[in-house]
Amino acid sequence: MSTPDVAIIGVGLHPFGRHGDKQALQMGAEAARAALADAGTEWPRVQAAYVGSYEVSNPDAIVGLLGLTGIPVRGVFNGCATGGTSLQAAAAAIRHGEADVAMAIGMDKHPRGAFAADPAVAGLPAWYGRTGLFLTTHFFGTKIGKYLHDHGVSVESLAKIAAKNLRNGSITPHAWRQKPLSEREILDAPVVNHPLTRYMYCGPDEGAAAVVLCRGDLAREFTSSPVYVRAAELRSRRFGAFELQSPSLPLTSTPSPTVDASRAAYEVAGIGPDDVRVAQLQDTDAGSELIHLAENGFCADGEQERWLAEGATEIGGRLPVNTDGGLIAHGEPIGASGLRQIYEIVLQLQGRAGARQVGGDPRVGYTHLYGAPGASAVTILSR
């Protein structure tokens, strides 16, 4: 018996940002209802759900807002790779015959400040964050500093990425940061962890996203423009990889989990990097997007300088990246972030992205997540 295709038939989003006393579960329920409406169906049609969150200890409690239908609902957490993991699990449930219609939902409500300011995260004392030694910002600063040195890439390239993402955010109604900044303003901003300045980082915030999936042969019962999940792959780090808990180690021949996940996804989908028309890459900071261009196979190490100078990753370029502004414009509510990427790619492939729509009738889209200390999720979608 052949494995069924999996189609995305609806997507929904609760805007990212700060939303007062509104609970993460409420945001998640709103995103789920929006995705169901987009699919032209209702919650009782869903047979399984996977709900991702860092802050909500029992995200399955969302059924109290959506409906007590008794279906299996599983909580998911895998760092910043949570959204890709929940999508992968929902797609697998359909492929394995456990459900005809399934959902992936993500939501979070993070306090202000870098995650390491919370002593409960990674067991760090409170003074660690208060003195500026934020674990994640320090790691990404160390990583990109070494990468720029090793591959002859300038700090100005980081400013180009941040400025591009903030420009894209300024034309994205649901983005958190909607004010564009010049490369000069970004370079002159306070340094957080050299060489990364304030506007080269994303920030923790609040929001939710949701995706409705179904068996491929049922897709046109719901929508005239389904988007198919061609690959959804997850890989963790191997010994010797440069990762969060060993930032002082040199980069070795051991690839990042991103390299492993992307290679696996290309093989499963039966395509290569040149087939991708629009991409969402994890941009926890501008350096991450720069590195991930190479790790996902789109260019060689060190070629990013030329790519950025040519505008290759702009909305009108050969490979638009983070067309909605990515994490830099949206911030990162961890459970929702990866599904926000899926939301954007689905809109792009369906021609519904408005002012940020990629030209040339895109048919293949790509999403990538990197979750500390070292997990990567890659999804390839097509019409």
UniProtKB/TrEMBL annotation:
Domain Thiolase C-terminal: 255-380
A Pfam family it matches: Thiolase_C_1
Thiolase N-terminal domain mapped to chain residues: 6-171
Family matches, as SUPFAM superfamilies: Thiolase-like (SSF53901)
InterPro entries: Thiolase, Thiolase-like, Thiolase_C_2, Thiolase_N
A single MF term (Gene Ontology): acyltransferase activity, transferring groups other than amino-acyl groups
Name of the protein: Thiolase family protein
